[in-house]
Amino acid sequence: MIDTHCHVDRYINPQQIAQEAENQGVTTIAVTTLPEFFEQSFSLFRSYKRVRLALGLHPLEASSHIAVQRQKFIQLLPKTSYIGEIGLDFSPAGRATMEKQIESFRFVLNQVRDRPRFITIHSRNAEAKVFELLKEYKIPIVAFHWYSGSLRLIEKIVGAGYYFSVNPAMIISKKGQNIIAQIPKERVLTETDGPYVKIGNEPARPRDVQVVISFLSSLWKINQPEATQQIYTNFNNILDPIRRNWGK
Question: DSSP code of 16?
Answer without folding.
Answer: H
